[in-house]
Specification:
The protein is of the alpha+beta class. The chain is built from 2 helices and 9 strands; from the N terminus they run βββαβαβββββ. It has a 3-stranded antiparallel sheet, with no helix packed on it.
Length: 145
């Protein structure tokens, strides 16, 4: 078993975990289920680890799953990311990024109104509050209410 480029001994079987990141909108179970049916919100990822409790360290961070690594290099992984070969037919196009305003993936590289991250008020009613408390634009600048 090899994990993060290091060989691990004593691993009998790998553990698979489904990771469903939150984008701050529709946080309830029904709201997130609705997101699946409407093809909105972030993708669900599969992580593989040698230890059952180790899935949190191997989940994709927000800049990674949204496709905006160039704006925030604090979470840049030092080891190469390997994906399973059976994922390739289902993989999203590599040029697409996540827009927190439209809540879907697309080719928005030249859009000046692209939200690369959004912070919502805690306990806000997502149906009435259409705008978040703070937004990061495509240049990495934060705009706050």
């Amino acid at each position: 078993w090899e994990q993060d480029g290091r060989r691990r001994r004593g691993v009998k079987k790998p553990y698979y975990h489904f990771v469903w990141p939150k984008d701050g909108r529709n946080g309830s179970t029904w709201g997130r289920t609705k997101d699946i049916l409407q093809n909105k919100g972030p993708d669900i990822f599969v992580t593989i680890s040698a230890d059952k409790e180790d899935y949190m360290a191997h989940r994709p961070r927000k800049p990674e799953w949204s496709g905006h690594e160039h704006l925030d290099d604090r979470y840049h992984r030092l080891w190469p990311f390997h994906e399973a070969p059976w994922v390739k037919p289902f993989r999203r196009d590599s040029g697409k990024v996540y827009d927190f305003r439209r809540r879907n993936y697309g080719h928005y590289s030249r859009d000046p109104f692209l939200w690369t991250e959004a912070l919502w008020y805690p306990g806000a009613d997502k149906r009435k509050d259409l705008y978040p408390r703070a937004v990061k634009d495509s240049l990495g600048n934060w705009w706050e209410d």
